[in-house]
# Entry
Amino acid sequence: MQGISLMLLALLVLVVWVGCSQDNSVLNDLTAQIDALQNEVQLLQANLESLGQLNLTIDTLNRQIGVLQDRIDGLDNLKARVGFLDRQVKVQADQDSLNELRAEIDLLNDQFKVLVLQASSNEITLGKDRAEMVLIPAGPFEMGDHFNEGTVWERPVHTVTLDQFYMDATEVTVGRFRKFVTQSGYAYPGNWKNVAQYSPTDDHPMIYVTWWDAMAYAVWAGKRLPTEAEWEYAARGGLVGKRYPWGDEIDKTKAHYDSWNDGKGTTEAVGSYAENGYGLYDMVGNVWEWCLDGFDGHYYSRSPEKNPLAGHASIEELIKGYKGIGTDRMLRGGAWYGGTGYLRVAARNHDRPRPWDSFGFRCVADVN
# Structure
């Protein structure tokens, strides 16, 4: 970064102009700021080392930090020269040079703040599809219909505790699914013209996908579909006991639904509405999203608390044999032409693993 070079030049100018009597406090202040900067470098490096899963981000930032560190290593020598020249030079300090140096140090500190934010971000790009994913924190939540307004399948409300996981920030788009088909040679059984009728661009959500299509994509990408519990937890976005991802009141500006009546009659490009509290887009509306679980209308009354999955002993067992599964799978989130009842984060739907004009998906990835 040019900020370091400018700072060093300004510091060399400074030592020629600074006198020893009235400006000791200025030199001490600048020396303290240099020490603080060195500490920030070390702290940033420690932060990067603690984020071992963000390999791509770490590699990039470490290269940047390496350049900064090489230049900062010379600051101790410069500080020694400042102290020496302070005893030798007896001239009036040039206030403009001091101000310029202060500005350079402030700029450098701002650059480090940006790097720290980048290093600690909860967003990451993972998988062959290179989709942006968001880290969903581990924790408990109350799963189910808190308002007794849905089906009996949505009750009783029960406590579920989940491990942390990554989730796609958006639904899988037409463009990403087309890339999967091209790169993997997957024999997509659907009709692209049908897809284009309701999802007309590569930025719209992929539709007319079977549950098997969604599973195949996820396996190819090195990810998987979410469990129902993971989906609902993520959709709530950190809110407790609310009806929708944004609160309890319906708001047409928050999701894409009832599209036959608004004159549009298609899906919306992903990310067209504001994200929820976890940074996820279109968790309700736009397209129904396939989940891993099989349908079990009584599952909530006997669901285990930790990482539940209906109908299967384990996620690994399900993925290994998914091609032979033909029973109903769960769908979440409502759709572009659906009503408000299905926008509830607790709302459950199920269907055969067949394609439909409102069936899509997004993926998750295990942190470890």
About this structure: The first helix runs from residue 2 to 17. Residues 34 and 56 are 29 Å apart (CA to CA). The beta strands are 123-126, 131-136, 139-143, 158-162, 165-168, 288-294, 329-332, 349-351, 359-360, 364-366. The chain has two domains: 2-121, 124-366.
